[in-house]
């Protein structure tokens, strides 16, 4: 029985940096610590931080009630208005936005400021995309599907700038670019998908095509993990999306001779190792 582990798995640079930032602040002490939204889409990590006194702020209404403490902005980033609100309230904050997301903020701020309509390839309800929209100074549209790209219409003289959520499916992004480019607009296309995301998706697809069963580990609200699952499912029908070892039972699947394992960018190494051990014990 073979188990193939993806080399590109678990915490990415941006998530690791954000999580480490929270633990560093906990060690320093000196007042209440908050994160604006869960620091990572992983329940185990969030629960551990809550046990250490870190509170999650869910929206701007909660933010407005703060008078003390330190707020940590997660890797997904936030719109300009959140930072301005914290500054007006005199509440200290630490910006742990992923540098790759920050780059998108600068791009859309610059290009929208020069009059371009911003297009974002991404999930409109994802916090990263909401944050990117918050740096646009003019019209902005979010395109999640090929159908939405086909239906997109603007005035002929409209200038566009197309960027992508860092965890967007690379192949879908290429298809969106092709559709929009054929419409004849003056357009700047910038592939802002994180290189680590692209590598992770490519490797997961390859492994899934070579095994009898594929396991994708990650939080249920993790966008990049959901994309990995979708990619793997197309290559391997026996693809399982789990958060922790107890979610998996391979004994119900017959004729499994090989298993592949990958994990989203919000999954700690400890959980990946536990799943690997669990799989080897079942096979």
Helix content: 40-55%
Largest sheet: 4 strands, parallel
Could you give the distance between the termini?
Answer: 7 Å
Derived structural class = alpha/beta
Strand order of the largest sheet: 1-12-10-11
Could you name the key traits of this structure?
four-stranded parallel beta sheet, 12 strands, 43% helix
Short description:
With 283 residues, the protein is α/β, with parallel strands linked by helices.
Provide structural commentary:
The structure is a single chain. A four-stranded parallel beta sheet has the order 1-12-10-11, sandwiched between helices. It has eleven helices and twelve strands. The model has no long low-confidence stretch (mean pLDDT 93). The longest helix is centred in the first third of the chain and has 16 residues, at 13-28. Helix 9 packs parallel to helix 10 (223-235). The chain has helices at 13-28, 43-51, 60-64, 80-89, 99-113, 127-133, 146-151, 170-181, 195-208, 223-235, 269-282; strands at 2-5, 33-36, 54-57, 70-73, 92-95, 117-121, 140-143, 159-164, 186-189, 213-217, 239-242, 258-263. It is α/β, with parallel strands linked by helices and 283 residues long. The radius of gyration is 20 Å and the shape is flat.
Topology at a glance:
Elements: E1 2-5, H1 13-28, E2 33-36, H2 43-51, E3 54-57, H3 60-64, E4 70-73, H4 80-89, E5 92-95, H5 99-113, E6 117-121, H6 127-133, E7 140-143, H7 146-151, E8 159-164, H8 170-181, E9 186-189, H9 195-208, E10 213-217, H10 223-235, E11 239-242, E12 258-263, H11 269-282
Parallel strand pairs: 1-12, 2-3, 2-4, 4-5, 6-7, 6-8, 8-9, 10-11, 10-12
